């Protein structure tokens, strides 16, 4: 005999727990299944352990998807203010770090404890360390076969996230279920991920790992002004993670290494003042010494300013404005914060997150082809899409 419930949610991450809360509050019997030992593991490690739980400025333009309109409905019905209200009702202290990014003062675990309490209050049951072996459509809904036995439910919600960080249990399960039911999946790739450089470029950047600088990173018309970090494998830091979601193999990105300084004017003024100073000395006053060294050697402008041709200074200034990099690749799902692509939004109803062709089957969170920028947007999508499905199941 199969156990019976109204809603089965597979995945006790951000989206699945929010969906369970909303469905439970509506009086639905909810069972949440997860193969992990603990719920919300990505919440726990997020934001350096403090969880950047939303972004107060979140808007549809902060999300990548083949259909940029799809996310609008869910985001409008559950906003960053709604989530912040929940956080405040639970007395969790928070602060804005930068660019609208809200973090817990103490620990990301506060967010998990809050969601678990809300789930309990809503009567939703959580079953951990439970494997799902198969999912079938039945006359009245779905049968989910688990390591704890079969469960029948009228509604099934897939909230198993994407492929990023496989060592934390990411499986690509959602895409297999989508394909099982004949739903298209937009090709997936790692997003918000450090980019790697070829051995030749790495050799040219010897001594740079650990150097951080604020840059404007550009890919086509997209640009982000944030910090960048040189690493032993290539480039990282928020500016690079942001642009990585737009970058494709073979593409070039450009970096403005001194967005606040008109370098040509600065060097011209410095030459007038004291032509004996070396270019590198002047540059080092405005950027890390190692970066100044690298730029001087790449632009061949070593020596006292008075002896450097104006044309060469222009070239150096241009080099700093448009530092071109052709990454060899990315660090992949091993370190990617998110998975781009996923269940094709054309297959889903944007109000309910239900598959148009399979009544009762919903996909939420990172599994769907909606991916946020870095900065709390991905959790906001998890809360909003979980809320939308929770109102409908
Ligand atoms: P999520 O991945 O959270 O949950 C999926 C759940 O399904 C997991 O509990 C998993 O165990 C379970 N599962 C998977 N396969 C299963 C199977 N076959 N059977 C049963 N259960 C299964 N975002 C943000 O907005 N602010 C931030 O600060 C950060 N920081 C951050 C840091 C790091 C290191 C990473 C990797 C990611 C972030 N993110 C982030 C992104 C954010 O964590 C992510 O977008 C959300 O967790 C997605 O929520 P979901 O609920 O969709 O999936």
TrEMBL record:
Its cofactor is FAD. This is NAD(P)/FAD-dependent oxidoreductase. Residues 6-391 form the RsdA/BaiN/AoA(So)-like Rossmann fold-like domain. The keyword Hydrolase does not apply. The keyword Lipoprotein does not apply. It comes from the Bacteria. Residues 189-338 form the RsdA/BaiN/AoA(So)-like insert domain. Keywords: FAD, Flavoprotein. It comes from Rhizobium subbaraonis.
């Amino acid at each position: 005999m199969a156990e019976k419930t109204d809603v089965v949610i597979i995945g006790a991450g951000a989206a699945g727990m929010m969906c369970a809360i909303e469905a439970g509050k509506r009086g639905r019997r909810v069972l949440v299944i997860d193969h992990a030992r603990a719920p919300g593991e990505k919440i726990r490690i997020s934001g350096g352990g403090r969880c950047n739980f939303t972004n107060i400025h979140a808007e549809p333009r902060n999300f990548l998807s083949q259909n940029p309109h799809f996310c609008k409905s869910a985001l409008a019905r559950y906003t960053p203010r709604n989530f912040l209200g929940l956080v405040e009702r639970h007395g969790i202290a928070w602060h804005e770090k930068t660019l609208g990014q809200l973090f817990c003062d103490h620990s990301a675990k506060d967010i998990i404890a809050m969601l678990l309490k809300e789930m309990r209050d809503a009567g939703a049951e959580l079953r951990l360390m439970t494997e799902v072996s198969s999912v079938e459509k039945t006359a009245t809904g779905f049968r989910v076969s688990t390591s704890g036995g079969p469960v029948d439910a009228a509604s099934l919600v897939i909230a198993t996230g994407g492929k990023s960080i496989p060592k934390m249990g990411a499986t690509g399960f959602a895409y297999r279920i989508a394909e099982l039911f004949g739903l298209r999946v937009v090709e997936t790739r790692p997003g918000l991920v450090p980019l790697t450089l070829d051995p030749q470029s790495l050799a040219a950047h010897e001594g740079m790992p650990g150097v951080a600088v604020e840059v404007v990173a550009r890919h086509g018309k997209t640009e982000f002004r944030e910090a960048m970090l040189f690493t032993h494998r290539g480039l990282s830091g928020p500016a690079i993670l942001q642009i990585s979601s737009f970058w494709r193999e073979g593409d070039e990105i450009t970096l403005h290494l001194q967005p606040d300084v008109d370098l040509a004017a600065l060097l011209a003024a410095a030459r007038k003042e004291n032509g004996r100073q070396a270019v590198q000395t002047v540059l080092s006053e405005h950027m890390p010494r190692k970066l100044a060294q690298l730029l001087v050697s790449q632009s061949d402008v070593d020596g006292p300013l008075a002896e450097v041709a104006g044309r060469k200074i222009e070239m150096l200034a241009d080099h700093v404005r448009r530092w071109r990099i052709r990454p060899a690749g990315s660090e992949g799902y091993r370190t990617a914060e998110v998975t781009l692509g996923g269940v094709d939004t054309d297959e889903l109803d944007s109000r309910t997150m239900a598959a148009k062709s399979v009544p009762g089957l919903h996909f939420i969170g990172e599994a769907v082809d909606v991916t946020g920028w870095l900065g709390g947007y991905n959790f906001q999508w998890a809360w909003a899409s979980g809320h939308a499905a929770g109102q409908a199941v």
